[in-house]
């Protein structure tokens, strides 16, 4: 039996009330439970207890981060969650400090994680179109990928010794949405990318 923690990092604001990200969370819950997984969801904007969230990370066999991209990164409330939960967990539960030892202060920075390869998946919604990425001719990202943009998140999880599954992105959800197609792709992504090599979740 696999235990999956979904973190809904949407921050309600003037442009969106969170319905789309909540819909992705609900689809993931249904697909995971249909395959026999136990699922817990933290909606970060509703508030959270730091110790409970650390315990949930230790309980989980996999994580899903669901959030809208705000100004090229996480919504502030989700960054606050990471700052508070992951900092508290550096006592050895999520990481043993920054990984260095006093007798070797220049070695092993970031290698003290305690999550032992815990799989995680980023699922993000963008106003940016898909065509803005992976194309050197595009002037803004200049050939950068979605995962290049998410490098700070990936490094944070590497710090905890978690391991990435392929990222999912829903693009252009404000100006040129194709939500029905995004849902189809999301379901397929979970089945073909997230569940892959997680043997205790039925295919």
Describe the overall structure.
By secondary structure, the chain is of the alpha/beta class. The protein has six helices and six strands. The chain has helices at 19-34, 50-59, 76-88, 146-149, 151-159, 179-194; strands at 3-8, 38-43, 62-68, 118-125, 162-164, 168-170. Strands 1, 2, 3, 4, 5 and 6 form a six-stranded parallel sheet that branches. Strand 3 (62-68), helix 3 (76-88) and strand 4 (118-125) form a beta-alpha-beta unit. Helix 1 (19-34) runs parallel beside helix 6 (179-194) and helix 2 (50-59) packs across helix 3 (76-88). The longest helix is centred in the N-terminal third of the chain and has 16 residues, at 19-34. It is globular, with a radius of gyration of 17 Å. The mean pLDDT is 91.
Short description:
The chain has 203 residues and is α/β, with parallel strands linked by helices. Helices cover 33% and strands 16% of the residues. It has six helices and six strands.
Largest sheet features: 6 strands, parallel
Radius of gyration: 17 Å
Tally the beta strands: 6
**Cα end-to-end separation:** 13 Å
Q: Helicity range of the residues?
A: 25-40%
Number of helices: 6
The H/E string reads EHEHEHEHHEEH
Instruction: Provide the β-strand percentage band.
Output: 15-25%
Judged by helices, strands and strand pairing, the structural class is alpha/beta
What global shape is seen?
A: globular
Kindly state the mean pLDDT as a whole number?
Answer: 91
Low-confidence segments, given as residue ranges, are none
């Amino acid at each position: 039996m696999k235990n999956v923690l979904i973190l809904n990092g949407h921050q309600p604001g003037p442009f969106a009330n969170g319905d789309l990200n909540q819909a992705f969370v609900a689809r993931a819950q249904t697909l995971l439970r249909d395959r026999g997984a136990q699922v817990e969801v933290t909606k970060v904007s509703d508030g959270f207890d730091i110790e409970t969230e650390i315990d949930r990370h230790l309980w989980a066999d996999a994580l899903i981060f669901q959030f809208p991209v705000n100004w090229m990164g996480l919504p502030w409330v989700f960054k606050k969650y990471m700052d508070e939960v992951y900092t508290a967990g550096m006592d050895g539960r999520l990481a043993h400090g920054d990984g260095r030892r006093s007798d070797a202060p220049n070695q092993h920075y970031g290698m003290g994680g305690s999550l032992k390869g815990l799989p995680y998946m980023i699922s993000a919604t963008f106003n940016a179109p898909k065509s803005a990425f992976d194309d050197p001719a595009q002037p803004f990202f200049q050939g950068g990928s979605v995962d290049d943009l998410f490098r700070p998140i990936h490094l944070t999880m590497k710090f905890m010794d978690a391991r990435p599954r392929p990222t999912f992105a829903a693009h252009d959800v404000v100006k040129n949405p194709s939500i029905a197609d995004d849902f189809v792709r999301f379901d397929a992504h979970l089945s073909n990318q997230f569940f892959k090599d997680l043997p205790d979740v039925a295919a």
